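Example for tutorial group B:
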């Protein structure tokens, strides 16, 4: 039930209760006053009647009594009247029914109620003696009517009153709850989101105060809501900024990732795919070729003389050549082909659409032609060149390893035979692939001290005493054991490792000179140097700084160079041999007779010795030709004022012959095979060839 109805019904109920009490009291009062008036009136009327009738009773004057009775009955309220003497009724008149009833005096209105007549009497007393009495009956209907009229009026009045009170309380309730309703409405508005909703306030009562407080609260809520909305907006804005930043970052990261991925898979210099990507492509090509049972070609390519370009013209030139090669390949090859830089000056080409060998060779030749197109770098015209090996799937290999090793072996063979392009042949065998594996290991081997020197004595034929040793390098390979120079010097020369290798040999030789010197053995050591070293303008300086570093007398170092090495670039060779001679280093021409040499150059070279190649010496006894060559070489040497050394002296007959020919010194298995340093020391101490002259004297000799 609403508060308003509680007020209305409450007020109405209270009013109704009050009215009931009021009316009930009023009616009671009315009843009592009517009763009193009735009692007085009946008493007075009865007495008056008794005193009037007194004489007639005493006289028993019936007629007079009857007229008195008629007079009394003329009062309209009196229902009957009777006069009695001690003997009985003297006169009576009135309503027959009442006159026949036994007289019982009434004392209250209530006792008269049962018949509607109030019965009263008065005694007729004379001088204290009772002579009779009068009895009268008063009708109570007038009083009863008054009372019932009054009750009806009161009820009507009460109803009217109640109606008014109802109306009034309705108005009051409405008025009182007006404010409450407004508050309720306000609360609903706020609950519905209408923050800042205001209630119209009239007056200053408690409700008005509450409404003002409500308005305050509402305003504050609206303010707070505004702040919250602002904050939300700000957060939204921040979120959007953040989101944008995250997106930006992600995009940047994606770009960087792509770049990194590209970098990881490509060579920075040539922009070609690198080894990793190439292996990936090869793997894919293999899988799809296996599925479709199609052929494809794998091409290995290695630059020729790249090291020389790098050394003579600098790394910048080397880089330009590599880029030129990349461009040449891209120009000739199709989009479906992959050309990759595998490292250094090695390239590999995958021809997935080339299904026959002839086509593969044609493509390779076109690549070579493009590479060979002259290139101008810093004013120099350069003609780059390369060697190419081809392996076909599945003919030459059914997996990646076989295809790679076989294309490499073919390339290696092409390089060796200077053929440009070669297709793999089974007879190229695994030996070459072993060589290729070794090539990859060379640098590590040099750095990790796997190179060792063996020493072979040179004996003066006249004195039969040791006048020096030749240092011959060996590779103490961790897996393959002791490797001889034949299996890796050519590799080192081709792969550009010959410079560090020569440097290592020189270092070891100088170390040995010092060690032997410390043990009282003073012997010159001859080191073999390759064409690359002789063509390197920085080589004399390298030698000079090594000599200085090891504090070794320069005349104890000899260098052996081949004719071919000199003839490659005689100008630089002559310049270098001169600079080395000026350092005090002795130079010999090695393997004399196997290559072409010009007398003109020979004279210009500052060499001290000529070593006659062992191929002529070994068989000298049984081959007249060889003997002629050896003899004329010794003569030539002597004519030029040079020392003649014969190598490959394997027997006494050869020794004797050489002595007879006037050869100055000899080297060969007859005297000793090349020996490790400590064995060589044993040999020195025990060998009959070791009539070593005293150190001091020999110094003067050399
Ligand atoms: P080489 O300079 O002509 O060296 C002499 C070679 O003949 C050595 O072979 C030696 O062991 C061998 N030899 C010596 N006496 C006899 C003999 O009586 N009979 C026969 N059959 N052979 C004899 P090795 O040590 O295998 O060296 C082979 C070649 O490797 C050398 O030929 C030289 O050209 C090259 N080489 C050796 N060490 C070095 C080095 O440190 N640097 C460079 N660049 N090349 C080296
Ligand atoms: Ca030699
Ligand atoms: Ca030789």
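The residue assignment follows.
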């Amino acid at each position: 039930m609403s508060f308003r109805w509680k007020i209305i019904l409450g007020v109405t109920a209270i009013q109704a209760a009050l009215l009931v009490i009021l009316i009930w009291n009023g009616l009671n009062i009315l009843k009592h006053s009517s009763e009193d008036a009735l009692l007085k009136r009946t008493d007075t009327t009865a007495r008056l009647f008794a005193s009037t009738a007194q004489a007639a009773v005493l006289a028993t004057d019936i007629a007079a009594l009857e007229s008195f009775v008629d007079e009394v009955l003329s009062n309209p309220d009196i229902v009957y009247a009777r006069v009695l003497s001690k003997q009985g009724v003297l006169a009576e008149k009135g309503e027959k029914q009442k006159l026949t009833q036994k007289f019982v005096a009434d004392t209250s209105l209530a006792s008269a109620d049962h018949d509607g007549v109030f019965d009263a009497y008065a005694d007729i007393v004379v001088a204290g003696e009772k002579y009779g009495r009068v009895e009268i009956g008063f009708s109570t209907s007038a009083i009863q009517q008054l009372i019932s009229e009054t009750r009806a009026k009161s009820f009507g009045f009460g109803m009217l009153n109640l109606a008014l009170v109802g109306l009034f309380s309705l108005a009051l309730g409405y008025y009182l709850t007006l404010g409450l309703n407004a508050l309720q409405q306000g609360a609903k508005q706020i609950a519905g989101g209408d923050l800042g909703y205001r209630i119209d306030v009239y007056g200053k009562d408690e409700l008005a105060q509450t409404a003002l407080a409500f308005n305050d609260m509402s305003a504050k809520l609206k303010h707070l809501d505004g702040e919250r909305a602002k904050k939300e907006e700000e957060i939204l804005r921040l979120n959007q900024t953040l989101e944008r930043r995250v997106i930006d970052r992600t995009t940047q990261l994606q770009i960087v990732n792509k770049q990194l991925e590209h970098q990881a898979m490509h060579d920075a210099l040539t922009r070609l795919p690198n080894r990793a990507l190439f292996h990936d492509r090869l793997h894919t090509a293999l899988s799809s070729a296996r599925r479709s049972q199609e052929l494809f070609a794998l091409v290995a390519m290695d630059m020729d003389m790249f090291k020389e370009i790098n050394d003579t013209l600098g790394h910048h030139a080397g880089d330009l050549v590599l880029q030129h090669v990349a461009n040449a390949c891209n120009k000739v090859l199709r989009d479906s082909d992959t050309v990759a830089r595998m490292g250094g000056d090695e390239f590999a080409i995958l021809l997935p659409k080339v299904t026959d060998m002839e086509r593969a060779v044609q493509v390779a030749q076109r690549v070579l032609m493009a590479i060979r197109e002259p290139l101008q770098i810093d004013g120099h015209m350069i003609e780059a060149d390369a060697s190419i090996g081809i392996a076909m799937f599945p003919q030459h290999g059914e997996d990646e390893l076989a295809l790679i090793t076989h294309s490499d072996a073919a390339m290696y063979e092409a390089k060796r035979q200077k053929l440009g392009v070669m297709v793999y042949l089974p007879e190229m065998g695994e030996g070459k692939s072993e060589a290729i594996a070794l090539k990859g290991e060379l640098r590590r081997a040099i750095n990790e001290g796997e190179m060792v020197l063996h020493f072979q004595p040179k004996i003066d034929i006249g004195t039969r005493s040791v006048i020096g040793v030749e240092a011959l390098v060996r590779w103490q390979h961790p897996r393959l054991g002791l490797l001889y120079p034949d299996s890796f010097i050519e590799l080192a020369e081709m792969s550009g490792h010959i410079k560090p290798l020569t440097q290592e040999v020189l270092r070891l030789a100088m170390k040995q000179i010092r060690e032997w010197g410390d043990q009282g053995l003073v012997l010159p050591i001859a080191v073999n140097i390759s064409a690359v070293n002789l063509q390197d303008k920085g080589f004399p300086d390298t030698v000079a700084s090594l000599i200085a570093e090891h504090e070794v007398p320069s005349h104890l170092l000899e260098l052996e160079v081949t004719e071919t090495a000199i003839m490659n670039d005689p100008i630089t060779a002559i310049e270098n041999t001169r600079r080395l001679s000026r350092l005090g280093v002795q130079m010999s021409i090695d393997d004399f007779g196997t290559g072409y040499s010009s007398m003109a150059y020979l004279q210009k070279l500052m060499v001290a010795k000529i070593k006659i190649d062992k191929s002529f010496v070994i068989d000298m006894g049984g081959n007249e030709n060889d003997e002629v060559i050896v003899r004329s070489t010794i003569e030539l040497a002597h004519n030029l004022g040079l020392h003649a050394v014969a190598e490959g002296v394997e027997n006494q007959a050869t020794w004797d012959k050489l002595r007879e020919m006037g050869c100055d010194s000899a080297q060969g298995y007859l005297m000793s095979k090349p020996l490790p340093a400590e064995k060589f020391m044993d040999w020195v101490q025990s060998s009959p060839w070791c009539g070593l002259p005293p150190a001091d004297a020999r110094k003067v000799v050399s």
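The pocket of calcium ion (ligand 3) is lined by residues 590-591, 613-614, 647 (CB under 6 Å). Compare this with the pattern of hydrophobic and polar residues in the output above.
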